[in-house]
Amino acid sequence: MISRLTSGERSIALMLASTGALIGVLMGAFGSGDPMGVHGWIVLAFCGALILVIGNNFYDPEPSEDRTLSYYDDPTKAGLIIALSWAVVGMGMGVWVACQLAWPDFRFENAWSSFGRIRPVHTTGIIFGFGGNALIATSFHIMQRTSRARIPDQVAPWFVLLGYNLFCLIAVSGYLMGVTQSKEYAEPEWYADIWLVVVWVSYFTLYVRTLARRNEPHIYVANWYYLAFILVMAVLHVVNNLALPASFSGAKSYSVFGGVQDAMTQWWYGHNAVAFFLTSGFLGMLYYFLPKRAERPIYSYRLSILSFWGITFFYIWVGSHHLHYTALPHWVQTLGMTFSIMLLVPSWASAGNALMTLNGAWNKVRDDAALRFMMIAAVFYGLSTFEGSFLAIRPVNGLSHYTDWTVGHVHAGAMGWVAFITFGSIYTLAPILWKRAGMYSAKAVEWHFWFALAGTVIYVFAMWNSGITQGLMWRTYNESGTLKYPFIDTVVAMRPYYIARAFGGLLFLSGACIGFWNVVMTIRRAPLKEPERDYPMNSEEPQVAAVAGK
Amino acid sequence: MKEVRDPLTGHMTTGHEWNGITELNTRVPRAIWLFILVTHVWALIIWILLPAWPVGTTYTKGVLGLDQRQQVNKEIAAAERAFAERDRQIRERSVPEIMTDVSLMNYVMDTASAIFGDNCAVCHGTAASGGPGYPSLIDTDWLWGGDTDQIMETLRVGINSQHPDTRHAQMPAFGRLGVLSGRDVRLLVPYVKSLSGSDIPAEVRAAGEDLFSRNCSSCHGADGMGRLQAGAPNLTDDVWLYGGGDNDIFYTIWDGRQGWMPAWQARLSDEDRKMLVIYLQELADGERP
Ligand code: HEM
């Protein structure tokens, strides 16, 4: 891969990696005795490995390929593999967390393996590790294809991908050492946050630079969604993480917000992370791979516009539905509730647009598990947004809040929607990237599909039952007018559901492992086939030479 | 690319194409507009009824005049009114009196079981039957006494707690602090066991008895029957707080034991604690054959 970089690009890459290594050393030295010191050494090791790789090929001959003739897919390929690795790690952690809830002894008496530390490893591993890498990888693919233009340079995409993964590593290793800002989905401390800003700004610029080079008169919907994801996440991330470090040589900071303002900022961030990370980005994925795979036109362009602006506008308002019946003023809660209901229509419009696109392709849905993954994803997207709007109604939330119902809702979204659309896209994308006739084993894709579906259904039903049982038990009064059940009784009542959930999670994880194996085998064994017309506008012929250059 | 008609749906495409993907220009289905209308009208009604929009430094209060803070205060006040009479009776009447009032007793048992579950079960178990390190509260074996007043006092001040009047349960670490040698402690183990009836050789008994009367009897009594004032357990029964095995007893004497129980005065009201005591007595009665 390095030999495909020009010597100028190699120098830039080497400089960036060396700067990173230097920062690592400084962090290690100043932060010694603090988790920040350990992070310094992790940064140094990461950048050191990069320096070695670049240095090893530094004096390779200059690449001879004509860059206008092909797309640049190396970072996409790497991103896809990294995403799958995170999937297995993150889901594995999820199963472990689930087991700890069912059998508390699964902690094995270590500080690092306690529930409070490995739970964020699971959530970060899945959302940012698996989801984020899948989004970055697919966006590199889609921005080039829908613009019919190659990514403008070859260092920036690597910087984004690797820089992002360095952030994920720092985040996850930090949790194990007990480093956290105690903000859900925004746990990493100040220096990791600053680093993510740098990476994110370069991601945004890269995207816009590619679009600026486009050879298509219009910008395809998928790109709107990816851009919304990148842009809004940047704003959310910066605002929610505004904090003062307690010292510049330690991993501890204090939020600039206090009390209920802090809570509101956090959930404004939190819900829009759901909206722009877990929804907007993946809708971009859906808008490209679903019509591609189904070979059908998008059902309605007008519906796309309506739902894009609907989602983008309404989501921003709804964060306060996470704080019903709290110290947050009543009027903010009313706004969160009403906008959540109005949000349902554009959400369903997206899901409907996706499903209607499948009209004329239902026979493919039946036969092709990859397309079926995407179809189910759209269904679960509809389901979880309906459920979300329902849960946002204050009295309903009074029952559901703090219970496993929320967890059930989340996983209908995260497993049924996010993971399903990602796997469907990966099964579509992998053969194109590695120029194969198809996946190595179509049967394995089938197996993955059924494992994933069974796992999701078991998980979600278990949590619905558990959550509603729990919520009802908490508010049951006896004849004397006092509370009937002590908390411990609800814990006992939840146990069977926790065991079921761990089992469902295990099924889902098994499916993901099959998927990973299948992708690896596709790369190694599946028969070669040149994808049709997969090159930028100004080239006439597919460039076989460019592939060989890898 | 030109706009063409999709043969399947009969709708026109928009005329754009991206790497093989096209879009139809289908108009937005009526149902969508209808749902938009319905949800927006609903939101509008809610905004009129409830506190909703910020205006400068205040906000629209809503025509229903509802506010969650006032609502919750009202509900709390109503609950307090509803319970005031029963609380007064519990405060003013004696335990035997309460226990003979059927309806009041129903209230006590209903209420106290949740209080017990939420505050005490973590340590004493959901059935109050205790476990290693945590005494059973439903047997007749009491460290600090099983009278109503004594239990009330235990709950009020706790054991080894931060309450100024706390009860102190201090089983000294005879071995670790060097008061007794390892050999002495090993001698005492069988002697302690013999107090609850197991057979031991006469010379061990003699040596143990001597060690015991010099070191232990001040708290556990010369006969090992224990002393309520010191919270020192009765060693002549077969109820063990920390286990009756050789090793358990060895470590009890070597390392000492200081069980810890929080004081509840600041956390539970007088009435709640009184209900708990009655509840425990009822449980214990239920246990007795
Ligand atoms: C119309 C769209 C949606 C609305 C109105 C909505 C609403 C809600 C509500 C009311 C909660 C519960 C808050 C609480 O009681 O604590 C919640 C939690 C959550 N939802 Fe959604 N939801 C929507 C879609 C989604 C989707 C598609 C996903 C996943 C991809 C998702 C992921 C989550 C997550 C991760 C949480 C948990 C937050 C926490 O940790 O407490 N939501 N959502």
TrEMBL record, chain A:
Output the GO biological process annotations, alphabetical, semicolon-separated. Answer: electron transport coupled proton transport; oxidative phosphorylation; respiratory electron transport chain
What keywords are annotated for this sequence in UniProt?
Cell membrane, Copper, Electron transport, Heme, Iron, Membrane, Metal-binding, Respiratory chain, Translocase, Transmembrane, Transmembrane helix, Transport
Q: Which Pfam families match?
A: COX1
Intracellular or extracellular location(s) = Cell membrane
| Enzyme class, spelled out | translocase
Which catalytic reaction applies to this protein?
A: 4 Fe(II)-[cytochrome c] + O2 + 8 H(+)(in) = 4 Fe(III)-[cytochrome c] + 2 H2O + 4 H(+)(out)
Q: How does it sit in the membrane?
A: Multi-pass membrane protein
Q: Tell me which Gene3D superfamilies the record gives.
A: Cytochrome c oxidase-like, subunit I domain
Q: What is its EC number?
A: 7.1.1.9
**MF annotations from Gene Ontology:** cytochrome-c oxidase activity; heme binding; metal ion binding
- Please give the superkingdom of this protein's source: Bacteria
**What residue intervals traverse the membrane?**
12-32, 38-59, 80-103, 123-143, 155-178, 190-212, 224-248, 268-289, 301-318, 330-349, 370-393, 413-433, 445-464, 498-520
Q: Which sites bind Cu cation? A: 271, 321-322
Q: Which GO terms describe its cellular component?
A: plasma membrane
Q: Where does heme b 1; low-spin bind?
A: 122, 411
| Domain (Cytochrome oxidase subunit I profile) ranges | 219-550
Name the pathway it acts in: Energy metabolism; oxidative phosphorylation
Q: Cofactor note from UniProt?
A: Binds 2 heme groups per subunit, denoted as high- and low-spin. Binds 1 copper ion per subunit, denoted as copper B.
Database matches in InterPro entries: Cyt_c_oxase-like_su1_dom, Cyt_c_oxase-like_su1_sf, Cyt_C_Oxase_1, Cyt_c_Oxase_su1_BS, Cyt_c_oxidase_cbb3_su1
Q: Which residues bind heme b 2; high-spin?
A: 409
Q: Which cofactor does it need?
A: heme; Cu(2+); heme b
The UniProt family comment states: Belongs to the heme-copper respiratory oxidase family.
NCBIfam families, sorted: ccoN
Under PANTHER family, the record lists: CYTOCHROME C OXIDASE SUBUNIT 1, CYTOCHROME C OXIDASE SUBUNIT 1 HOMOLOG, BACTEROID
The name of this protein is cytochrome-c oxidase
Q: Which organism is it from?
A: Hyphomonas jannaschiana VP2
UniProtKB/TrEMBL annotation, chain B:
Cofactor entry: heme c
Binding residues annotated for heme c 1, in chain numbering: 120, 123-124, 261
According to the UniProt entry, its GO molecular function terms are: electron transfer activity; heme binding; iron ion binding; oxidoreductase activity
Q: What is the free-text note on the cofactor?
A: Binds 2 heme C groups per subunit.
Domain (Cytochrome c) spans 107-196, 203-284
Query: Which keywords does the record carry?
Result: Cell inner membrane, Cell membrane, Electron transport, Heme, Hydrogen ion transport, Ion transport, Iron, Membrane, Metal-binding, Oxidoreductase, Repeat, Respiratory chain, Transmembrane, Transmembrane helix, Transport
For this chain, the family text in UniProt reads:
Belongs to the CcoP / FixP family.
Describe, as the record does, how this protein assembles with itself and its partners. Answer: Component of the cbb3-type cytochrome c oxidase.
Q: What does this protein do?
A: C-type cytochrome. Part of the cbb3-type cytochrome c oxidase complex.
**What is the protein's name according to its record?**
Cbb3-type cytochrome c oxidase subunit
Native organism is Hyphomonas jannaschiana VP2
